[in-house]
Design a protein that fits this description.
It contains 10 helices and 5 strands. The protein is of the alpha/beta class. Helix 8 links the parallel strand 4 and strand 5.
Length: 250
């Protein structure tokens, strides 16, 4: 809504395009709306895991934490968090106050993710203008490292968008978080109408093979287990964990 979506984000760029064209935007779901959808999916569709995805609210010291906690409370009232077979993970903006994450775990989240997206800071500034301007790398790392220290390994995740930066910086970023018990998520760039760094063409296949090998090696070395029971959305993390010889969630 501020005209600064990440260049690779389809939803953000579609919202921006609709706003610029004067088209009405979709209604915002209330916590009770989300809870109703979760109840249906868990009880009638066999869904195991619940992912709440945010990443746009940065106005307060705790960012989106109060809203996510409210949604979790609504899900608990409607379905019961204990009745969700798999995990509940919350993807959100890194708050100014890193201790805000404690409220998410207290509200029932199994894992929390603050996405770095791109490790190379010059590319990060270019392709993630809103996050760079309003949150910044220092705040992201402070929040990630606090959450990992306080809540232990495998409780905090951070996605990297695979295909946007040189392989060396991508793997350096993944290694940085992995060494701290933070799960690096392997989120594949899906090109759409907006070019990223002037192109909509993904890297060659060898780039993805080497990236897969690098992430799998980190999962094995640091005993990291990605969320979910299979590939999730555009993330191949669980598939790579299996490749690394780790058990799948039962």
């Amino acid at each position: 809504m501020g005209g600064q979506p990440c260049h690779f984000c389809y939803q953000g760029n579609m919202t921006l395009a609709m706003r610029q064209a004067g088209q009405p935007l979709p209604p915002i779901a209330s916590p009770d709306d989300v809870a109703e959808a979760v109840e249906h999916c868990v009880r009638h569709e066999g869904i195991r895991d619940v992912q709440l995805t945010g990443g746009s609210e940065v106005d307060s010291a705790c960012g989106e934490v109060p809203l996510a906690a409210e949604i979790l409370a609504a899900i608990d009232r409607k379905t019961g968090l204990d009745n969700i077979p798999g995990e509940i993970y919350v993807y959100t903006s890194a708050p100014k106050d890193p201790t805000g994450v404690d409220a998410l775990f207290a509200a029932g989240a199994d894992r929390v993710a603050y996405d770095l997206n791109v490790w190379d800071e010059a590319i990060f500034e270019q392709v993630c203008p809103g996050i760079f301007r309003h949150i910044g790398r220092e705040q992201q790392l402070r929040a990630l490292e606090y959450a990992a220290r306080k809540h232990g390994p495998n409780k905090t995740c951070s996605a990297f968008v695979i295909g946007l930066e040189p392989l060396e910086s991508l793997l350096a970023g993944a290694a940085y978080v992995a060494q701290r018990g933070i799960v690096p998520l392997f989120s594949v760039w899906l090109p759409h109408h907006r070019p990223v760094r002037g192109s909509t063409a993904p890297p060659a296949l060898d780039y993805y093979r080497r990236a897969r090998e690098g992430f799998a090696a980190l999962f094995a070395k640091y005993k990291l287990e990605p969320p979910g029971a299979s590939g999730l959305n555009v993330c191949l993390c669980r598939d790579l964990a299996i490749q690394a010889g780790m058990r799948a969630c039962s």
